[in-house]
Amino acid sequence: MKYYDKLIFELSKEGRKGYTLPENRLKEYTLASLPEGLKRQQAPELPEVSEFDVVRHYTNISNKNFGVDTGFYPLGSCTMKYNPKINEEMAGQPAFANLHPLQPAATAQGALEVYYNLAHALAEISGLAEFTLNPYAGAHGELTGLMVMRQYHLKRGDLKRTKVIVPDSAHGTNPASAAVCGLNVVEVKSKPDGRIDVEHLKPLLDDTIAGIMMTNPNTLGLFESDILEIAELVHACGGLLYYDGANLNPLLGKCRPGDMGFDIMHINLHKTFSTPHGGGGPGAGPVGVAKALVDYLPSPRVCKADDGTFYLSHPADSLGRVSGFIGNFGVMMRAYTYILSLGKEYIKYVGPLATLNANYIKESLKDCYYLPIEGICKHEFVFDGLLDKSTGVTTLDVAKRLLDYGYHAPTIYFPLLFHQSIMIEPTETESLETLDEFIDVMRKVAREAIECPEEVKTAPHHTPVRRLDETNAAKHPILRYRDLAQ
Questions:
Q1: Could you say which of 3.40.190.10, 3.40.50.1820, 3.90.1150.10, 1.10.1040.50 is the CATH number of the domain covering 351-472?
Q2: Residue 1's pLDDT is what?
Q3: Considering the entire predicted model, what is its pTM?
Q4: Alpha-carbon torsion (451, 455, 457, 459), positive or negative
Protein backbone atom coordinates (compact mmCIF):
# COMPACT_ATOMS: atom_id res chain seq x y z
CA MET A 1 0.00 0.00 0.00
CA LYS A 2 1.38 3.38 -1.00
CA TYR A 3 1.67 6.22 1.51
CA TYR A 4 -1.16 8.18 -0.10
CA ASP A 5 -3.49 5.16 -0.16
CA LYS A 6 -3.56 5.12 3.63
CA LEU A 7 -6.19 6.96 5.61
CA ILE A 8 -3.67 9.36 7.21
CA PHE A 9 -4.68 12.73 8.63
CA GLU A 10 -1.47 13.75 10.43
CA LEU A 11 0.73 14.97 7.57
CA SER A 12 2.28 17.96 9.32
CA LYS A 13 6.08 18.16 9.36
CA GLU A 14 7.85 20.99 11.16
CA GLY A 15 9.27 23.58 8.78
CA ARG A 16 7.32 22.40 5.72
CA LYS A 17 5.44 25.17 3.92
CA GLY A 18 2.74 25.18 1.27
CA TYR A 19 2.31 28.91 0.90
CA THR A 20 3.98 32.01 2.28
CA LEU A 21 2.11 35.28 2.66
CA PRO A 22 3.91 38.57 1.95
CA GLU A 23 5.18 40.33 5.04
CA ASN A 24 2.51 42.55 6.60
CA ARG A 25 3.98 46.03 6.33
CA LEU A 26 1.00 47.59 8.10
CA LYS A 27 1.18 45.39 11.18
CA GLU A 28 1.37 48.24 13.67
CA TYR A 29 -1.79 49.81 12.23
CA THR A 30 -3.88 46.65 11.82
CA LEU A 31 -3.15 45.35 15.32
CA ALA A 32 -3.80 48.72 16.93
CA SER A 33 -7.52 48.37 16.31
CA LEU A 34 -7.78 45.03 18.19
CA PRO A 35 -8.61 45.07 21.91
CA GLU A 36 -5.90 43.52 24.06
CA GLY A 37 -8.22 40.70 25.12
CA LEU A 38 -8.59 39.53 21.52
CA LYS A 39 -4.89 39.47 20.64
CA ARG A 40 -3.14 36.09 20.49
CA GLN A 41 -0.53 35.44 23.14
CA GLN A 42 1.08 32.74 21.01
CA ALA A 43 1.05 31.72 17.37
CA PRO A 44 -1.80 29.44 16.26
CA GLU A 45 -1.02 25.74 15.92
CA LEU A 46 -1.48 25.19 12.21
CA PRO A 47 -0.46 22.16 10.16
CA GLU A 48 2.82 22.51 8.27
CA VAL A 49 2.39 20.75 4.94
CA SER A 50 3.38 21.27 1.35
CA GLU A 51 0.75 22.24 -1.21
CA PHE A 52 1.38 18.95 -3.04
CA ASP A 53 0.67 16.93 0.11
CA VAL A 54 -2.58 18.84 0.64
CA VAL A 55 -3.72 18.25 -2.95
CA ARG A 56 -2.91 14.53 -2.78
CA HIS A 57 -4.57 14.16 0.62
CA TYR A 58 -7.90 15.69 -0.40
CA THR A 59 -7.90 14.03 -3.81
CA ASN A 60 -7.30 10.68 -2.10
CA ILE A 61 -10.15 11.32 0.36
CA SER A 62 -12.51 12.36 -2.46
CA ASN A 63 -11.70 9.16 -4.36
CA LYS A 64 -12.97 7.18 -1.39
CA ASN A 65 -16.40 8.79 -1.71
CA PHE A 66 -19.18 7.01 -3.54
CA GLY A 67 -21.20 9.08 -6.01
CA VAL A 68 -23.71 8.57 -8.78
CA ASP A 69 -20.93 9.35 -11.28
CA THR A 70 -18.85 6.44 -9.95
CA GLY A 71 -21.37 3.69 -9.33
CA PHE A 72 -24.94 2.44 -9.01
CA TYR A 73 -27.22 3.58 -6.19
CA PRO A 74 -30.00 1.00 -5.65
CA LEU A 75 -31.19 3.43 -3.00
CA GLY A 76 -34.87 3.45 -2.19
CA SER A 77 -36.77 6.48 -0.90
CA CYS A 78 -34.31 9.04 -2.29
CA THR A 79 -33.83 8.69 -6.04
CA MET A 80 -30.18 8.80 -7.01
CA LYS A 81 -30.49 9.30 -10.74
CA TYR A 82 -27.99 10.67 -13.20
CA ASN A 83 -27.39 14.43 -13.03
CA PRO A 84 -26.85 15.52 -16.67
CA LYS A 85 -23.79 17.72 -17.04
CA ILE A 86 -25.67 20.26 -19.14
CA ASN A 87 -27.60 21.10 -15.97
CA GLU A 88 -24.36 22.10 -14.28
CA GLU A 89 -23.27 24.10 -17.30
CA MET A 90 -26.49 26.11 -17.37
CA ALA A 91 -26.53 26.70 -13.61
CA GLY A 92 -22.93 27.90 -13.80
CA GLN A 93 -23.56 30.52 -16.46
CA PRO A 94 -22.08 33.81 -15.15
CA ALA A 95 -25.26 35.69 -16.06
CA PHE A 96 -27.10 33.57 -13.47
CA ALA A 97 -24.37 32.58 -11.02
CA ASN A 98 -23.21 36.16 -10.45
CA LEU A 99 -26.63 37.61 -9.66
CA HIS A 100 -27.13 39.13 -6.21
CA PRO A 101 -30.44 38.47 -4.45
CA LEU A 102 -30.75 42.13 -3.44
CA GLN A 103 -30.70 43.35 -7.04
CA PRO A 104 -33.82 45.15 -8.20
CA ALA A 105 -36.22 42.89 -10.12
CA ALA A 106 -35.68 45.00 -13.23
CA THR A 107 -32.04 43.83 -13.37
CA ALA A 108 -32.80 40.11 -12.83
CA GLN A 109 -35.54 39.53 -15.38
CA GLY A 110 -33.89 36.42 -16.83
CA ALA A 111 -33.71 34.68 -13.45
CA LEU A 112 -37.29 35.64 -12.61
CA GLU A 113 -38.42 34.27 -15.96
CA VAL A 114 -36.70 30.95 -15.21
CA TYR A 115 -38.46 30.85 -11.82
CA TYR A 116 -41.83 31.67 -13.39
CA ASN A 117 -41.48 29.16 -16.23
CA LEU A 118 -40.30 26.35 -13.94
CA ALA A 119 -43.18 26.96 -11.54
CA HIS A 120 -45.66 26.74 -14.41
CA ALA A 121 -43.99 23.61 -15.83
CA LEU A 122 -44.29 21.91 -12.44
CA ALA A 123 -47.94 22.98 -12.24
CA GLU A 124 -48.63 21.40 -15.63
CA ILE A 125 -46.76 18.21 -14.73
CA SER A 126 -48.53 17.84 -11.37
CA GLY A 127 -52.02 19.04 -12.29
CA LEU A 128 -52.05 21.82 -9.68
CA ALA A 129 -52.71 25.53 -10.15
CA GLU A 130 -49.55 27.27 -8.97
CA PHE A 131 -46.18 26.60 -7.34
CA THR A 132 -43.78 28.39 -5.05
CA LEU A 133 -40.11 27.46 -5.41
CA ASN A 134 -39.08 29.18 -2.18
CA PRO A 135 -38.62 26.15 0.15
CA TYR A 136 -35.05 24.89 0.39
CA ALA A 137 -35.68 21.13 0.71
CA GLY A 138 -38.30 18.40 0.66
CA ALA A 139 -38.92 18.49 4.41
CA HIS A 140 -39.02 22.29 4.23
CA GLY A 141 -41.58 21.93 1.46
CA GLU A 142 -43.65 19.59 3.64
CA LEU A 143 -43.68 22.15 6.43
CA THR A 144 -44.60 24.91 3.98
CA GLY A 145 -47.43 22.84 2.50
CA LEU A 146 -48.84 22.09 5.95
CA MET A 147 -48.59 25.78 6.82
CA VAL A 148 -50.71 26.49 3.72
CA MET A 149 -53.18 23.87 4.97
CA ARG A 150 -53.39 25.54 8.39
CA GLN A 151 -53.65 28.99 6.85
CA TYR A 152 -56.58 27.81 4.75
CA HIS A 153 -58.51 26.54 7.78
CA LEU A 154 -57.60 29.53 9.97
CA LYS A 155 -58.76 32.06 7.36
CA ARG A 156 -62.10 30.27 7.27
CA GLY A 157 -62.35 30.40 11.07
CA ASP A 158 -62.26 26.61 11.26
CA LEU A 159 -60.09 26.44 14.38
CA LYS A 160 -60.90 22.87 15.42
CA ARG A 161 -58.95 21.30 12.56
CA THR A 162 -55.72 20.43 14.34
CA LYS A 163 -55.19 16.81 13.24
CA VAL A 164 -53.42 15.32 10.25
CA ILE A 165 -53.86 11.69 9.19
CA VAL A 166 -50.64 9.90 8.26
CA PRO A 167 -50.39 6.28 6.99
CA ASP A 168 -48.33 3.77 8.99
CA SER A 169 -46.12 3.35 5.91
CA ALA A 170 -45.35 7.09 5.60
CA HIS A 171 -41.94 8.68 5.33
CA GLY A 172 -40.62 9.75 8.72
CA THR A 173 -40.66 13.40 7.73
CA ASN A 174 -44.47 13.38 7.44
CA PRO A 175 -45.33 13.11 11.14
CA ALA A 176 -42.30 15.23 12.00
CA SER A 177 -43.39 18.06 9.71
CA ALA A 178 -46.94 17.90 11.07
CA ALA A 179 -45.66 18.13 14.64
CA VAL A 180 -43.40 21.09 13.83
CA CYS A 181 -46.43 22.79 12.27
CA GLY A 182 -48.36 22.36 15.53
CA LEU A 183 -50.66 19.62 14.24
CA ASN A 184 -51.50 16.33 15.93
CA VAL A 185 -50.81 13.11 14.02
CA VAL A 186 -53.43 10.40 13.63
CA GLU A 187 -52.20 7.11 12.13
CA VAL A 188 -54.20 5.15 9.56
CA LYS A 189 -53.35 1.48 9.12
CA SER A 190 -52.39 -0.38 5.96
CA LYS A 191 -54.06 -3.53 4.65
CA PRO A 192 -52.10 -6.75 4.14
CA ASP A 193 -51.56 -5.70 0.51
CA GLY A 194 -49.62 -2.61 1.71
CA ARG A 195 -52.23 -0.01 0.78
CA ILE A 196 -54.29 2.28 3.02
CA ASP A 197 -57.17 0.55 4.77
CA VAL A 198 -60.16 2.69 3.75
CA GLU A 199 -62.37 1.04 6.37
CA HIS A 200 -59.92 2.09 9.09
CA LEU A 201 -59.77 5.59 7.62
CA LYS A 202 -63.53 6.27 7.67
CA PRO A 203 -64.04 6.51 11.46
CA LEU A 204 -61.03 8.84 11.75
CA LEU A 205 -62.67 11.52 9.61
CA ASP A 206 -64.47 14.28 11.48
CA ASP A 207 -64.47 18.07 11.81
CA THR A 208 -61.09 18.06 13.62
CA ILE A 209 -59.20 16.72 10.58
CA ALA A 210 -57.15 19.32 8.71
CA GLY A 211 -56.07 16.82 6.06
CA ILE A 212 -54.25 13.65 5.17
CA MET A 213 -50.64 13.24 4.03
CA MET A 214 -50.01 10.54 1.45
CA THR A 215 -47.35 9.30 -0.92
CA ASN A 216 -48.63 7.70 -4.10
CA PRO A 217 -47.22 5.28 -5.01
CA ASN A 218 -46.57 4.62 -1.34
CA THR A 219 -43.34 3.73 0.41
CA LEU A 220 -43.67 0.10 -0.67
CA GLY A 221 -43.75 1.24 -4.29
CA LEU A 222 -47.43 0.33 -4.58
CA PHE A 223 -50.06 2.53 -6.20
CA GLU A 224 -52.88 3.51 -3.85
CA SER A 225 -55.71 2.20 -6.01
CA ASP A 226 -58.40 3.61 -3.68
CA ILE A 227 -57.11 7.17 -4.04
CA LEU A 228 -60.29 8.58 -5.62
CA GLU A 229 -62.44 7.20 -2.80
CA ILE A 230 -59.97 8.48 -0.20
CA ALA A 231 -60.03 11.94 -1.78
CA GLU A 232 -63.83 11.98 -1.76
CA LEU A 233 -63.99 10.92 1.90
CA VAL A 234 -61.42 13.47 3.10
CA HIS A 235 -62.98 16.32 1.13
CA ALA A 236 -66.42 15.37 2.42
CA CYS A 237 -65.29 15.91 6.02
CA GLY A 238 -63.75 19.29 5.10
CA GLY A 239 -60.12 18.17 5.02
CA LEU A 240 -57.42 18.62 2.38
CA LEU A 241 -55.16 16.09 0.68
CA TYR A 242 -51.41 16.59 0.92
CA TYR A 243 -49.19 14.75 -1.58
CA ASP A 244 -45.65 13.91 -0.49
CA GLY A 245 -43.83 14.20 -3.82
CA ALA A 246 -40.99 11.86 -2.86
CA ASN A 247 -42.42 9.18 -5.17
CA LEU A 248 -43.52 11.36 -8.06
CA ASN A 249 -40.88 9.86 -10.37
CA PRO A 250 -42.94 6.85 -11.61
CA LEU A 251 -46.02 8.98 -12.30
CA LEU A 252 -44.37 11.21 -14.90
CA GLY A 253 -46.12 10.74 -18.21
CA LYS A 254 -48.90 8.60 -16.73
CA CYS A 255 -50.95 10.53 -14.17
CA ARG A 256 -50.94 13.68 -12.04
CA PRO A 257 -51.54 14.18 -8.31
CA GLY A 258 -53.92 17.07 -8.98
CA ASP A 259 -56.13 14.79 -11.04
CA MET A 260 -56.27 12.32 -8.14
CA GLY A 261 -57.76 14.97 -5.86
CA PHE A 262 -54.68 16.28 -4.06
CA ASP A 263 -54.83 19.93 -2.98
CA ILE A 264 -51.23 20.50 -1.88
CA MET A 265 -47.96 18.83 -2.75
CA HIS A 266 -44.23 19.30 -2.55
CA ILE A 267 -41.74 18.07 -5.13
CA ASN A 268 -38.19 16.98 -4.39
CA LEU A 269 -36.27 18.35 -7.35
CA HIS A 270 -33.34 16.06 -6.50
CA LYS A 271 -35.55 12.98 -6.74
CA THR A 272 -37.67 13.64 -9.79
CA PHE A 273 -35.83 16.30 -11.77
CA SER A 274 -32.20 15.18 -11.49
CA THR A 275 -30.66 17.92 -9.36
CA PRO A 276 -27.73 16.78 -7.16
CA HIS A 277 -28.41 15.41 -3.72
CA GLY A 278 -26.22 14.24 -0.91
CA GLY A 279 -24.35 15.43 2.13
CA GLY A 280 -27.30 17.50 3.27
CA GLY A 281 -27.78 19.50 0.10
CA PRO A 282 -28.17 21.38 -2.10
CA GLY A 283 -31.92 21.06 -2.30
CA ALA A 284 -35.26 22.55 -3.25
CA GLY A 285 -38.79 21.53 -2.29
CA PRO A 286 -41.28 23.47 -4.46
CA VAL A 287 -44.86 23.47 -3.15
CA GLY A 288 -47.88 23.42 -5.44
CA VAL A 289 -51.51 24.05 -4.53
CA ALA A 290 -54.99 23.88 -6.01
CA LYS A 291 -56.61 27.09 -7.22
CA ALA A 292 -58.47 27.78 -3.95
CA LEU A 293 -55.18 27.86 -2.02
CA VAL A 294 -53.02 30.02 -4.28
CA ASP A 295 -53.36 33.18 -2.17
CA TYR A 296 -51.92 31.39 0.87
CA LEU A 297 -48.59 30.48 -0.77
CA PRO A 298 -45.51 32.05 0.82
CA SER A 299 -44.19 35.37 -0.38
CA PRO A 300 -42.63 36.76 -2.36
CA ARG A 301 -44.31 35.31 -5.44
CA VAL A 302 -42.95 35.82 -8.93
CA CYS A 303 -45.65 37.23 -11.20
CA LYS A 304 -45.81 38.25 -14.84
CA ALA A 305 -47.14 41.67 -15.83
CA ASP A 306 -49.25 42.36 -18.92
CA ASP A 307 -46.20 43.82 -20.67
CA GLY A 308 -44.26 40.54 -20.21
CA THR A 309 -41.99 41.72 -17.41
CA PHE A 310 -41.66 39.91 -14.08
CA TYR A 311 -42.07 41.27 -10.57
CA LEU A 312 -42.33 40.14 -6.96
CA SER A 313 -45.65 40.32 -5.13
CA HIS A 314 -46.64 39.92 -1.46
CA PRO A 315 -50.34 38.90 -1.26
CA ALA A 316 -52.20 39.89 1.89
CA ASP A 317 -53.31 36.33 2.73
CA SER A 318 -49.85 34.83 2.18
CA LEU A 319 -48.42 32.86 5.08
CA GLY A 320 -45.31 35.07 4.76
CA ARG A 321 -41.69 34.23 4.09
CA VAL A 322 -40.37 30.70 4.55
CA SER A 323 -36.88 31.37 3.16
CA GLY A 324 -34.50 34.12 2.26
CA PHE A 325 -35.33 35.71 -1.09
CA ILE A 326 -36.91 33.21 -3.53
CA GLY A 327 -35.19 29.91 -2.73
CA ASN A 328 -32.20 27.98 -4.01
CA PHE A 329 -31.90 29.33 -7.53
CA GLY A 330 -29.01 27.12 -8.64
CA VAL A 331 -31.08 24.00 -8.02
CA MET A 332 -34.06 25.51 -9.86
CA MET A 333 -31.83 26.21 -12.85
CA ARG A 334 -30.74 22.58 -13.00
CA ALA A 335 -34.30 21.26 -12.79
CA TYR A 336 -35.51 23.69 -15.45
CA THR A 337 -32.72 22.59 -17.79
CA TYR A 338 -33.63 18.93 -17.20
CA ILE A 339 -37.31 19.53 -18.01
CA LEU A 340 -36.45 21.49 -21.16
CA SER A 341 -33.96 18.81 -22.24
CA LEU A 342 -36.63 16.11 -22.07
CA GLY A 343 -39.55 18.18 -23.30
CA LYS A 344 -43.11 16.91 -23.26
CA GLU A 345 -42.16 14.32 -25.89
CA TYR A 346 -39.74 12.43 -23.62
CA ILE A 347 -40.69 13.26 -20.05
CA LYS A 348 -43.54 10.80 -20.47
CA TYR A 349 -41.02 7.94 -20.61
CA VAL A 350 -39.54 8.64 -17.16
CA GLY A 351 -42.31 6.94 -15.17
CA PRO A 352 -42.69 3.82 -17.34
CA LEU A 353 -38.92 3.21 -17.49
CA ALA A 354 -38.51 3.65 -13.72
CA THR A 355 -41.33 1.16 -13.23
CA LEU A 356 -39.89 -1.30 -15.75
CA ASN A 357 -36.44 -1.25 -14.11
CA ALA A 358 -37.84 -1.81 -10.61
CA ASN A 359 -40.04 -4.72 -11.67
CA TYR A 360 -37.18 -6.29 -13.62
CA ILE A 361 -34.94 -6.39 -10.53
CA LYS A 362 -37.80 -7.54 -8.28
CA GLU A 363 -38.78 -10.46 -10.47
CA SER A 364 -35.13 -11.45 -10.98
CA LEU A 365 -34.39 -11.67 -7.24
CA LYS A 366 -37.58 -12.88 -5.57
CA ASP A 367 -36.33 -16.49 -5.59
CA CYS A 368 -33.42 -15.36 -3.33
CA TYR A 369 -34.98 -12.57 -1.28
CA TYR A 370 -38.36 -12.66 0.44
CA LEU A 371 -40.99 -10.57 -1.35
CA PRO A 372 -43.77 -10.00 1.22
CA ILE A 373 -46.21 -8.43 -1.25
CA GLU A 374 -46.52 -9.86 -4.74
CA GLY A 375 -47.68 -7.91 -7.77
CA ILE A 376 -46.53 -5.08 -10.00
CA CYS A 377 -44.67 -2.31 -8.18
CA LYS A 378 -43.90 1.18 -9.43
CA HIS A 379 -40.46 2.77 -9.09
CA GLU A 380 -39.35 0.85 -5.99
CA PHE A 381 -40.08 -2.31 -4.04
CA VAL A 382 -39.25 -3.85 -0.67
CA PHE A 383 -37.82 -7.27 0.19
CA ASP A 384 -38.05 -8.58 3.74
CA GLY A 385 -34.49 -9.86 3.94
CA LEU A 386 -33.19 -13.11 2.48
CA LEU A 387 -35.57 -15.86 1.52
CA ASP A 388 -33.38 -18.34 3.46
CA LYS A 389 -32.62 -16.82 6.87
CA SER A 390 -31.35 -20.07 8.41
CA THR A 391 -27.72 -18.92 8.76
CA GLY A 392 -28.63 -15.71 10.57
CA VAL A 393 -27.41 -13.33 7.85
CA THR A 394 -29.34 -10.07 8.24
CA THR A 395 -30.28 -7.20 5.96
CA LEU A 396 -27.44 -5.16 7.47
CA ASP A 397 -24.99 -7.93 6.56
CA VAL A 398 -26.22 -7.97 2.96
CA ALA A 399 -25.89 -4.18 2.72
CA LYS A 400 -22.34 -4.26 4.08
CA ARG A 401 -21.32 -7.05 1.71
CA LEU A 402 -22.57 -5.06 -1.28
CA LEU A 403 -19.92 -2.45 -0.46
CA ASP A 404 -17.21 -5.01 -1.20
CA TYR A 405 -18.61 -5.39 -4.70
CA GLY A 406 -18.63 -1.67 -5.43
CA TYR A 407 -22.32 -0.92 -4.92
CA HIS A 408 -23.88 1.61 -2.61
CA ALA A 409 -26.20 -0.18 -0.21
CA PRO A 410 -29.97 0.12 -0.70
CA THR A 411 -32.16 1.63 2.00
CA ILE A 412 -32.42 -0.88 4.84
CA TYR A 413 -34.86 -1.39 7.72
CA PHE A 414 -37.32 1.02 6.16
CA PRO A 415 -40.26 0.99 5.81
CA LEU A 416 -40.92 -0.28 9.33
CA LEU A 417 -43.70 -2.60 8.17
CA PHE A 418 -41.16 -5.43 7.81
CA HIS A 419 -38.37 -6.53 10.15
CA GLN A 420 -35.65 -6.94 7.50
CA SER A 421 -36.67 -4.37 4.88
CA ILE A 422 -34.47 -3.89 1.81
CA MET A 423 -35.85 -1.08 -0.33
CA ILE A 424 -34.50 -1.02 -3.88
CA GLU A 425 -35.07 1.80 -6.38
CA PRO A 426 -33.06 1.65 -9.61
CA THR A 427 -34.42 4.83 -11.35
CA GLU A 428 -35.09 5.09 -15.06
CA THR A 429 -31.58 6.18 -16.00
CA GLU A 430 -29.80 2.85 -15.38
CA SER A 431 -29.01 0.54 -18.29
CA LEU A 432 -29.97 -3.12 -18.66
CA GLU A 433 -26.30 -4.08 -18.30
CA THR A 434 -26.02 -2.23 -14.97
CA LEU A 435 -29.19 -3.87 -13.67
CA ASP A 436 -27.99 -7.32 -14.71
CA GLU A 437 -24.63 -6.81 -12.98
CA PHE A 438 -26.39 -5.71 -9.79
CA ILE A 439 -28.75 -8.70 -9.94
CA ASP A 440 -25.77 -11.05 -10.34
CA VAL A 441 -24.08 -9.56 -7.26
CA MET A 442 -27.27 -9.73 -5.17
CA ARG A 443 -27.63 -13.40 -6.10
CA LYS A 444 -23.99 -14.03 -5.26
CA VAL A 445 -24.44 -12.46 -1.81
CA ALA A 446 -27.51 -14.65 -1.25
CA ARG A 447 -25.42 -17.75 -2.09
CA GLU A 448 -22.60 -16.58 0.19
CA ALA A 449 -25.12 -16.16 3.01
CA ILE A 450 -25.74 -19.93 2.82
CA GLU A 451 -22.33 -21.26 1.83
CA CYS A 452 -20.01 -18.94 3.81
CA PRO A 453 -22.16 -16.82 6.12
CA GLU A 454 -19.22 -15.50 8.18
CA GLU A 455 -17.85 -13.83 5.05
CA VAL A 456 -21.08 -11.84 4.82
CA LYS A 457 -21.50 -11.25 8.56
CA THR A 458 -18.03 -9.70 8.82
CA ALA A 459 -18.27 -7.57 5.65
CA PRO A 460 -17.12 -5.17 4.35
CA HIS A 461 -13.58 -6.42 3.82
CA HIS A 462 -12.26 -4.03 1.14
CA THR A 463 -13.40 -0.56 2.22
CA PRO A 464 -11.29 2.18 3.87
CA VAL A 465 -13.14 1.57 7.15
CA ARG A 466 -15.04 -1.49 8.37
CA ARG A 467 -18.19 -1.61 10.48
CA LEU A 468 -18.45 1.52 12.55
CA ASP A 469 -20.11 2.02 15.91
CA GLU A 470 -22.64 4.47 14.51
CA THR A 471 -24.56 4.87 17.78
CA ASN A 472 -21.44 5.75 19.75
CA ALA A 473 -20.24 8.03 16.95
CA ALA A 474 -23.52 9.96 17.09
CA LYS A 475 -23.52 10.24 20.87
CA HIS A 476 -19.81 10.90 21.36
CA PRO A 477 -18.41 12.39 18.13
CA ILE A 478 -14.71 13.13 17.91
CA LEU A 479 -14.59 16.53 16.27
CA ARG A 480 -10.82 17.06 16.38
CA TYR A 481 -8.27 15.04 14.48
CA ARG A 482 -5.88 15.30 17.44
CA ASP A 483 -6.58 14.56 21.09
CA LEU A 484 -5.83 17.82 22.92
CA ALA A 485 -5.23 15.90 26.14
CA GLN A 486 -2.10 14.32 24.70
A1: 3.90.1150.10
A2: 45
A3: 0.88
A4: negative
